[in-house]
Amino acid sequence: MLQNGAETYRVEDTMTRMAASLGFPGAHSYVTPTVIMFTTSRTEQPKLFRIAERTTDLQKVAEVNDISRRLSQRQITSAQARERLALVDDAAHAYPAWLQIVAAALAGGCFTIMFKGSFSDALPALLVSGLGYAAAAYLQRLVQIKFFAELTASSLIGLLSFLFVQAGIGVETDKIIIGSVMPLVPGLLITNAVRDLMAGHLISGLSKGAEAFLTAFAIGTGIGLVLSFVS
């Protein structure tokens, strides 16, 4: 769940509920965005699990929630729950990469219109947002540094938006840029940060908020660098 975009308080609640249903009512868990610590009792040494990779796949989060609910209600056994969790862990992303790129492209075009851009700006925004999202996804797999990938992708978005307008395909560069960067904006991260803070998980909430700020800073820096050179 933590690897696929769930809030930390939800992860803790799921773990303790599953442990209680298996006969460990005194289980304790402590979760941050990168570490899980869990123990079945106060006397047992806690076990630590490192979270190395994080992505967004709410389908997997929903499936784990369903397994936890069924286990708590005694609808499935622990062996069945373990088997289903292994299947969820091994499953590929709910949506293939090409579909994510198409969705990002459509979102970019729609956001351009929503921000009072013209339909002549929406078409280049479709292409720019799709290419920018694809570049971010590819670079993140290549270098494993999220902020560098977003900085480079936003720079590409700014450059392509400028070139499209210069070529007569599009009217307002700023509207194309604003719409195209929206698929890169860390909306889920910001939401989870606020929800964790409201649930009392201050460390997780602040760390996610800082990550969201750095992501937004990387996007703004990439756009600003390009515009400073071409203007």
C-alpha Rg, in Å?
Answer: 21 Å
**What average pLDDT do the residues reach?**
88
What's the β-strand tally?
3
- N-to-C SSE string, H for helix and E for strand: HEEEHHHHHHHH
N-end to C-end Cα span? 44 Å
Q: Percentage of helical residues?
A: 55-70%
Report the principal-axis shape.
elongated
Report strand order across the widest sheet: 1-2-3
β-sheet strand percentage = 5-15%
Unreliable parts = none
Number of helices: 9
Domain count: the total is: 2
Structural class: mainly alpha
Largest sheet: 3 strands, antiparallel
InterPro entries: ThrE-like_N, ThrE_Dicarb/AminoAcid_Exp
Main location: membrane
Keywords: Cell membrane, Membrane, Transmembrane, Transmembrane helix
Protein name: Threonine/serine exporter
Describe the structure.
With 231 residues, the protein is mainly α. The chain folds into 2 domains: 2-90, no CATH class; 97-230, no CATH class. 68% of the residues lie in helices and 6% in strands. It has 9 helices and 3 strands; from the N terminus they run αβββαααααααα. It has helices at residues 8-21, 58-72, 78-90, 97-114, 119-143, 146-166, 173-181, 187-198, 202-230, and strands spanning 28-31, 35-39, 47-50. A hairpin with a 3-residue loop joins strand 1 (28-31) and strand 2. Helix 4 packs antiparallel against helix 5 (119-143) and helix 8 packs antiparallel against helix 9. The chain is elongated, with a radius of gyration of 21 Å. The relative contact order is 0.11. The model has no long low-confidence stretch (mean pLDDT 88).
